[in-house]
Write a structure and sequence with these properties.
The protein is α/β, with parallel strands linked by helices and 331 residues long. It has twelve helices and eleven strands. The strands form three sheets. It has a six-stranded mixed beta sheet, with helices on both faces. It has a three-stranded antiparallel beta sheet with strand order 8-5-9. The chain has a two-stranded parallel sheet with strand order 6-7. α6 (161-173) links the parallel β6 and β7.
Length: 331
């Protein structure tokens, strides 16, 4: 019996050493980032910049695999159907991670994933025609809308984040503007220039492409880096105004995630590579030059940030219903 016991202990020790070697060898092959939108966009390019930086540090390829469909839900479902071995990263955007469950299009929550790091955010601002003299600044814009409820229009499109943000700002400011749906953001900006729309919700990339025609009244964030992305535009806090959205809530953002069952040692390897990538000044510059910001939230902040966004966007979702009722009452 003693001999058998010693052999068993030796076997266990061998298995432990084997497991340690496996952990030390991770990754031994390419890792995939499952990306929820179509390829070829600026957002796709930003994820590839981060993936390339991590690839250099990990010594393995890290392709970004575009898996569009169902508002990002297909990518999450695809990733979760794979083995939780560290070789699958979920590009966790706010739409599939937070908004889809909110509208019962998915059955997961922030707690169902393990975060690597927060990656980037694409902020939003309110823009008007560059020659529109009805609005000199954000306070005068709000005063005009309050004096003329329902007589202005903006690019509100269904249950999307920009529409949720726009409706929430209107509700918080005690006024209403008519949402006009656009599947193509470019068409909304074209109609702004033509006078069909009075104002738009837009991101820094759209602003850069149209800044000869669009003036930013306010960057919808308390972050100075977001204001800089909109050419140094003022923020609500600069006017002492609360628009009801803080932190990441008024922005399109992503956390890079893995399935919750992923081994902790492999999670740490991925975290270290992502942390070092996002700290690289050359990479940060490439991201900011594209109109995005590096969010710099760490893994231990994930649940606090994600659930705070969820709570605020629940209010923004309700604001769309409020907006529809308010517009109907004006008819």
């Amino acid at each position: 019996m003693r001999t058998i016991k010693r052999l068993s202990l030796s076997a266990i020790a061998g298995l432990a050493l084997c497991g340690s070697a496996i952990a030390d060898d991770f990754p031994e092959r390419s890792i995939q980032n499952i990306y929820p939108w179509a390829p070829g966009t600026i957002t796709y390019g930003i994820s590839q910049i981060i993936a390339d930086g991590m690839s250099e540090r990990l010594g393995q390829a890290l392709p970004v695999i575009a898996t569009p469909g169902a508002g990002g839900v297909k990518a999450f479902e695809t990733a979760l159907s794979r083995e939780a071995d560290g070789y699958i990263i979920i590009d966790g955007y706010v739409a599939p991670l937070v908004i889809a469950p909110m509208f019962e299009r998915a059955n997961w929550a922030c707690e169902d994933f393990t975060p690597l790091y927060s990656a980037t955010a694409n902020a939003m601002g309110i823009g008007v025609r560059i020659d529109d003299d009805r609005f000199t600044d954000f306070p005068s814009f709000i005063e005009f809308l309050q004096a003329n409820p329902g007589e202005t229009a903006y690019n509100g499109n269904g249950l999307t984040l920009p529409h949720m943000v726009g409706a929430r700002v209107m509700q918080q400011m005690g006024t209403v503007s008519r949402p006009i749906p656009y599947d193509d953001a470019g068409l909304g900006l074209k109609d702004l220039r033509a006078g069909v729309l009075d104002w738009v919700i837009l991101n820094p990339g759209q602003y850069e492409a149209n800044k000869d025609h669009v003036r930013i009244l306010v960057a919808l964030s308390e972050s100075e880096s977001v204001a800089d992305a909109f050419g140094g535009s003022p923020r609500p806090v600069d006017y002492g105004i609360d628009v009801g959205l803080t932190g990441l809530a008024p922005m399109g953002w992503n956390w890079w995630l893995v399935a919750s069952e992923t081994p902790e040692d492999r999670v740490q390897v991925l975290r270290d590579a992502m942390r070092d990538t996002l700290a690289d000044e050359a990479i940060r510059e490439r991201i900011t030059d594209a109109g995005y910001i590096v969010t710099d939230y760490s893994p231990d902040q994930y649940l606090e940030v994600c659930n705070a966004v969820k709570e605020q966007l629940s209010q923004a979702r309700d604001a769309i219903t409020w907006e529809a009722d308010a517009v109907k009452a004006l008819n």
